[in-house]
Design a protein that fits this description.
- There is one protein chain.
- The protein is mainly alpha-helical.
- The protein has 2 domains: 3-80; 125-172, no CATH class.
- Helices cover 53% and strands 6% of the residues.
- The protein contains 6 helices and 4 strands; from the N terminus they run ααααααββββ.
């Protein structure tokens, strides 16, 4: 049996149309389609990776002027991370720093790192007198009788101005 009888008629017609000239034309068209696709991809990729117009233009021109094989050069010279990835990492680092600051401040409140106004030693928040220099750390507001810290010029509870004679009294 001849080979033409084995093939489907449409396959036989297609097989007769495929010539060397057709293969060359198809290869050239395919080459240019890939080249244009790579130029578009490089243009989009480089604009996501840097804001430098000079570097963006240089990379796009490399792909336009040279063949698609130069895409490997582009992959070597392009920035490793996109601007979005850099921005995300920066936000994560800032959040970690902020978290450390907040945690440090919470730890100070929990541990009561308040300092005596006279001797600057660390005292607990609820101490009434300093255990080191024996100065009074708190006194009662003369208006509402709530306990307030020494040195406060106004009561935070009743908004009454404190008298000047309400200073820290040393106890022996």
């Amino acid at each position: 049996m001849p080979q033409e009888q084995i093939l489907h008629p449409y396959v036989a017609i297609l097989w007769n149309m495929v010539t060397i000239e057709f293969m060359i034309k198809f290869s050239v068209i395919y080459f240019f389609v890939v080249w244009i696709a790579l130029i578009i991809w490089v243009a989009r990729d480089i604009t996501n990776r840097t804001s430098s117009l000079f570097f963006q233009t240089l990379c796009i021109l490399i792909m336009i002027v040279f063949s698609p094989l130069w895409v490997f050069l582009y992959l070597l010279i392009r920035p490793g991370k996109s601007m979005y990835e850099k921005y995300s990492e920066e936000i994560e680092e800032n959040l970690e720093i902020l978290n450390e600051i907040v945690q440090d401040r919470l730890d100070h409140k929990v541990h009561g790192d308040v300092f005596c106004p006279a001797c600057s030693e660390a005292v607990e928040v609820d101490f009434i007198i300093c255990p080191y220099c024996h100065i009074s750390l708190k006194h009662s507001c003369h208006h509402c009788k709530k306990e307030i810290r020494q040195g406060w010029k106004i009561c935070p509870y009743c908004e009454v101005q404190q008298e000047k004679n309400e200073t820290a009294k040393k106890t022996d």
